[in-house]
Amino acid sequence: MIYWELFISFCWVGVFCVGGGYASVPLIQHQVIELHHWLTMPEFLDIFAISQMTPGPIGINAATFVGTKVAGIGGAITATVGFVLPSFIIMIILAKLLARYGDLGAIRGILNGLRPAVIGLIASAGVMFFTLAIWNTQKIPTNLASTDLAGLLVLAAAFIAVRKKIFGVIQTLIAAWLLNLLLSFIIK
Amino acid sequence: MEQENTRDKDFYWKLFKSTFLISTFTVGGGYVIVPLLKAKFVDEYHWLDDKETLTLVSVAQSAPGVVAVNAAIIMGYKMAGLRGAFCATFATVLPPLITLTIISYFYSFFASNHYMQIVLKGMQCGATALIIQVMYDLLKKQWSKKVAFPIMITLGTFIANYFFNFNMMYIVLVDALIGLFLLQDKKYE
């Protein structure tokens, strides 16, 4: 049964995908290309291109894309549920453990080490996204001529709007989207 | 952690709506959603505080699965038990499920359309502004505490991740070990 196979395949990816970001890619590749031949390599590479410009983590995108391809919308839902289910169970267990043992010295120590790390990772994502939005690169920009002035303007306006509490989170996202569309008609 | 199981309908609707919209407008996948959820749940709705959120994200970070989904699950659970976790997960997963299903039929149109690119660019700028705001806020608060060790961990993690592209898993492991052996004291909280 194809639904069951999809479900099990993505469950497996969900369980063994450790390390965030693109850690799931080789696992999905193994399941989808080598084991089940659901996609060809070029089709698989398309998923990356799509994931770069659509919402959602690559794992979910891949699950949806593969599921749709193999068994329509039902397949997309099955694969996605399979991918998320292990995370769901593991996170609930960890949350319960955290509530019970969070006060132990060792656990407190580990969390004291991890909290500042999260700030560092958020900062890293922030810088990457900043250079990506303005210079279209994740690394330190070398070609300053490629600066996207409209993007810079939208970003600055959005930042001020959030900072001054003029807009909430959702309004900011929508306003930035509209402003960029407007600017694209003015600045050619 | 399960004290907040009795939430009204309005709460679930707000939780679903905000998570759904954030997930819809979060282009580029992965870690981006974490600061956006923080901006919404902590800074706007005050459902969680800074420290709780960082703790939950730490746990989400260290477990298998996608950080964005893990973070939504554990934040939802913390705020409203199993129902909250389910609501937040559903809202996180639904937008990519819908978009990708549509896109898988119209891929070539999507990849080459000029206006599509502009629309995505705008969303990206908005999300970036929000991330920078959250980042600025967290760094400022951390700096004002004037405790050297956590600041060094933040800096080290940033350098390892941004400049050296180290695998996230090793970074998290090293930081956890530093915490386990050196940071058990109350003053590091």
From TrEMBL, chain B:
Record-level GO cellular component terms: plasma membrane
Main localization category: membrane
Keywords of the record: Cell membrane, Membrane, Transmembrane, Transmembrane helix
TM annotation in the entry: 12-34, 54-73, 85-108, 147-163
Subcellular locations according to the entry: Cell membrane
One annotated GO molecular function: chromate transmembrane transporter activity
Membrane topology, record value: Multi-pass membrane protein
Record family assignment: Belongs to the chromate ion transporter (CHR) (TC 2.A.51) family.
Protein name: Chromate transport protein
Organism of origin: bioreactor metagenome
Taxonomic lineage from the root: unclassified sequences, metagenomes, ecological metagenomes
